[in-house]
From TrEMBL:
Protein name per UniProt: NAD(P)-dependent dehydrogenase (Short-subunit alcohol dehydrogenase family)
Family annotation (Gene3D superfamilies): NAD(P)-binding Rossmann-like Domain (3.40.50.720)
Stretches for region Disordered: 252-282
Upper taxonomic lineage: Bacteria, Bacillati, Actinomycetota, Actinomycetes, Kitasatosporales
Entry keywords, A to Z: Oxidoreductase
GO MF, one annotated term: oxidoreductase activity
Length: 299
């Protein structure tokens, strides 16, 4: 496609069910808003129900709110039970929610907060909902990663929870690398089924609340440079929307902003780091994630 891919390229979504995590603000809100505008029945899966209801009131279309706290596996299981009961079929699962550069904290289950929220919570949710997607032709699991998957990023299998030391930047990089490795391994497992695709996306540098935990040393330059480097949330959501809806997208692809450095611009297919394509590490991450969450996949 030679022209820039924009909101108007989103195909008609009537009859489709889309679940978007972290959809009360920022990228998730814009993703949900645009899907609803094209006719999808959209579920805002959010930690704060009241904020979710306020967001839903700002969206025109078929929108419901589901409680989901990705920092608690009990909450993930409860949300999955609710979603399975309400939706015999799911067309789109968009794993959008995330935290970035948080001070050292753990989830309710004792996982490092960024790894637990960004990867393990979404891993568990996907596994618990996947049988609702598998029978649906054209269904997709879209997981939002980041250019941060290249920055001080590695899977520290000897200390995944950062118990010995902690770097908020490196921990974020690990979680975003895990998002990509999960997508690629999931796609390999889905290929035999031929219906559901796993795709990844990243928003470039978008002006959202995600950066609120930026380390103090970076906060001033980030604040000054933000107007020059960042793009609005509605632009940052386009790679996710393209990954979710463009008929030309194939499983295992990765979409991000098309300008130099993938900081901003219209979405196109992009590449990810060599580490993200390490199949042995992908399989190991999958096994460890099943062990940590207690969730196994039907593929």
């Amino acid at each position: 496609m030679s022209e820039n891919w924009t909101e108007r390229h989103i195909p008609d979504q009537h009859g489709r069910v889309a679940i978007v995590t972290g959809a009360n603000t920022g990228l998730g809100f814009e993703t949900a808003r645009m899907l609803a505008a094209r006719g999808a029945a959209v579920v805002l899966a959010v930690r704060d129900i009241e904020k979710g209801k306020q967001a839903a009131a700002r969206i025109t279309g078929d929108v419901t709110v589901q409680a989901l706290d990705l920092t608690s596996l009990d909450s993930v299981r409860s949300a999955a039970d609710d979603l399975r009961a309400a939706h015999p079929r799911i067309d789109l699962l968009i794993n959008n929610a995330g935290v970035m550069y948080t001070p050292k904290q753990t989830t309710a289950d004792g996982f490092e907060l960024q790894f637990g929220t960004n990867h393990l919570g979404h891993f568990a949710l996907t596994g618990l909902l996947l049988d609702r997607l598998l029978p649906v032709p054209g269904s997709r699991v879209v997981t939002v990663s980041s250019t941060g998957h290249r920055i001080r990023a590695a899977l520290h299998f000897d200390d995944l929870q950062w118990e010995r030391s902690y770097s908020r930047v490196a921990a974020y990089g690990q979680s975003k690398l895990a998002n990509l490795m999960f997508t690629y391994e999931l796609q390999r497992r889905l290929e035999a089924h031929g219906t559901t695709a796993a795709v990844a996306a990243h928003p470039g540098v978008s002006n959202t609340e995600l950066a609120r935990n930026t380390p103090a040393a970076l906060r001033v330059p980030v604040t000054w440079l933000a107007p020059l480097l960042t793009q609005k949330a509605e632009m940052g959501a386009l790679p996710t929307l393209r990954a979710a809806t463009d008929p030309a997208v194939r499983g295992g692809q990765y979409y991000g902003p098309g300008n130099r450095g993938e900081i901003r611009g219209y979405p196109k297919q992009v590449s990810s780091s060599a580490d993200s394509h390490d199949q042995a590490a992908q399989r190991r991450l999958w096994t460890v994630s099943e062990e940590l969450t207690g969730v196994t996949f039907p593929v």
